[in-house]
Design goal:
Its EC number is 3.5.2.6. It comes from Candidatus Opimibacter skivensis. Belongs to the class-C beta-lactamase family. By secondary structure, the protein is an alpha+beta fold. It has three domains: about 325 residues, Beta-lactamase, CATH 3.40.710.10; about 110 residues, Tetratricopeptide repeat domain (Serine Threonine Protein Phosphatase 5, Tetratricopeptide repeat); about 80 residues, Lipocalin (Beta Barrel). About 35% of the residues lie in helices and about 20% in strands. The strands form four sheets. It has an eight-stranded antiparallel β-sheet with strand order 2-1-12-11-10-9-8-7, sandwiched between helices. An eight-stranded antiparallel beta barrel has the order 13-14-15-16-17-18-19-20. Strands 3-6 form a two-stranded antiparallel ribbon.
Length: about 575
């Protein structure tokens, strides 16, 4: 099972509502938090830009990479899904110019050979693609990257067309918000077809050139290459991402300096021919996103006089955030060359009531130091000594240890990989993924007997682990999977909405004798019984338990994923 996942149930993004009056310097708690993250090895660099009545101000911390140069407001980062706002701006510009309508059905722009799905005679529109109500999934099911470190690079237009032609919509168009990289990537593709130029050329002539954003492109210029902050995950350098087909969803690279130019036009501080188009993108189209509104591209958090308009982004080695308040003309951009999220910094700058997350160094940094210096011999003993002596000093994460294990496995260094996966099994004995990864390393090391044992354990914990079944059969073992059936009347008691954290629910529904779970902003997937109260997903390594009170009434649901347990109360 690969260490890179493309589907997550656990919530990532939540919103701030009250604007914080900015100072001429960063607030002390923000500065301390940033320095802690850099010292802990979480983020090689963080650049913050603030735009308010004092004009643009920049605060830069860290380096482009371990031995790189210091970053500044001109350092280049992948902005990921903030690209969606640029795609929405291109759409709005064409609408203002009368070249198309927000309600145009998308099939009129695509080759006649592409059979775009409809629902009860209703067609997906350009607006549906931009505001995430198209009923298309987050990602197409024929997305199968050859290189997990650059996952979008080999996804082709023909594959996208093939998916569209074969996909059946599962709900009415416009009925529900579901964040979709596919939808906005498709929108960018349609707009480039309409314009008769590449997405990047359309972006340049419509947005970045008129706004003098010379550091915002997809294809890096020579100067941008010199200023590129190298992407990192868990302290290790990772390649940049390429999105040739779905460019509109997340392919843009930029600087904080350019992003404040963009925010200045968004807030009406700088006049631009794009102003009317930008105003159009801010208009709410629905309020189905966790109680928040969505315009064209932008997410809009309610807050009385201080309504906040925002978006964020993430690629393999970068996370970014921009947000602003039109009423008070204050905007914030936060960029980092790390997969460690910085949204909390952006939201805290806009709302000091939003908490900054606690920061501890990941124990994998220390484990990597031990491996590089002393090898993997006795790594488990050294890990246990570290954990016992410094229990509160390090952050221990199943996913982090798993990823470091795959890092060594990719280098064909089996000994440290095996030691790390063994530690994960010890630390997370109820994780199917931990056993699966350990089994994979054992199999590659030629220890089939122990690999079989661990694959069987993984399958016992998660009967939906098709990879374990495939690997066991490859090694000549044919596992028998017991079929568990739960009476429909029992399944009915599980139906309902469970709030895991504010703004993030899991909705459980029943169709005939099948149970389905849908996390906020994600697809609906069937969950399968392991027992009368334990269920598992087949699309991701995650399990759900339904919990009863003393009277036998279902009161909570617990989601198990990535070594974490989150319990949500059933709403009445």
């Amino acid at each position: 099972m690969t260490s890179v996942k493309y589907f997550f149930l656990l919530p990532i993004l939540f919103l701030g509502f009250i604007l914080h009056a900015q100072q001429n310097d960063l607030p002390a708690d923000i500065k301390a938090s940033i320095l802690q993250r850099i010292d802990a090895g979480k983020n090689p660099s963080i650049v913050v830009g603030i735009l308010d009545s004092n004009g643009p101000r920049y605060f830069s911390f860290g380096k482009t990479t371990e031995n790189g140069k210091k970053v500044d407001e001109h350092s280049i980062y992948e902005i990921g899904s903030i690209s969606k706002v640029f795609t929405a701006t291109l759409l709005a510009d064409m609408i203002i110019k009368g070249q198309l309508s927000v309600d145009d059905p998308i099939e009129i722009f695509l080759p006649i050979s592409v059979h775009v799905p409809t629902y009860e005679g209703k067609h997906i529109t350009l607006g549906n693609l931009s505001d995430h109500t198209s009923s298309l999934p987050r990602m197409p099911d024929n997305f199968d990257p050859a290189d997990p470190l650059n996952p979008y690079a080999d996804y082709t237009v023909d594959q996208m067309y093939s998916f569209l032609s074969s996909y059946t919509l599962t709900r009415p168009i416009g009925s529900q918000y579901e964040y979709s990289n596919l939808a906005v990537g498709l929108l960018g593709h349609i707009l480039s077809l309409k314009a008769g130029v590449s997405y990047e050329d359309l972006l340049t002539r419509t947005v970045t050139a008129p706004l003098h954003m010379d550091e915002t492109r997809i294809t890096l210029s020579g100067e941008m290459k010199k200023n590129l902050a190298i992407g990192h995950t868990m302290g290790m350098e990772v390649p940049n991402w390429d999105l040739p087909t779905l460019a509109g969803a997340g392919a843009i690279r930029s600087s904080v300096s350019d992003m404040l130019k963009f925010l200045s036009v968004q807030m009406g501080i700088t006049a631009s021919p794009l102003s009317k188009a930008i105003e159009l993108t801010h208009q709410p189209r629905h309020d189905k996103a966790n109680g928040n509104s969505v315009g064209l591209g932008w997410h809009i958090a309610p807050g009385g006089e201080h309504e906040i308009i925002w978006h964020n982004g993430a690629t393999g080695g970068y996370t970014t955030f921009i947000g602003f308040c039109n009423d008070t003309k204050t905007g914030v951009a936060v960029f980092t060359n790390s997969s460690e999220n910085v949204d909390d910094i952006g939201f805290h700058l806009l709302n000091p009531e939003r908490e900054l997350k606690s920061v501890k160094p990941g124990i994998i940094k220390k484990l990597k130091e031990i491996i590089e210096k002393d090898g993997a011999d006795k790594l488990t003993e050294k890990f246990m000594a570290l954990k016992q002596k410094n229990a509160d000093e390090y952050e221990i994460s199943e996913n982090d240890i798993n990823t470091l294990g795959y890092y060594y496995l990719s280098l064909k260094k089996n000994e440290p990989a095996l030691a790390l996966f063994s530690i994960n099994v010890m630390e997370y004995p109820n994780s199917a993924n931990a056993y699966d990864s350990y089994a994979e390393a054992l199999m590659k090391n030629g220890d089939n007997e122990l690999a079989i044992k661990n694959y069987k354990k993984s399958l016992e914990l998660n009967p939906g682990n098709s990879n374990a079944v495939e690997m066991l059969e490859k090694m000549g073992t044919h596992p028998e999977l017991p079929e568990v059936k739960v009476d429909g009347t029992i399944l009915e008691t599980y139906v309902g909405t469970y709030e895991l954290v504010p703004g993030f629910d899991i909705v459980v529904t029943k169709e005939e004798d099948h149970l389905f779970a849908q996390a906020t902003g994600q697809d609906k997937f069937e969950i399968f019984p392991k027992s009368s109260t334990e269920f598992f997903y087949k699309v991701v390594d995650a399990q759900i338990n339904f919990n009863k009170n003393d009277d036998g009434k279902i009161i909570t649901l617990t989601l198990h994923q990535g070594g974490r347990d989150i319990t949500g109360k059933k709403k009445e």
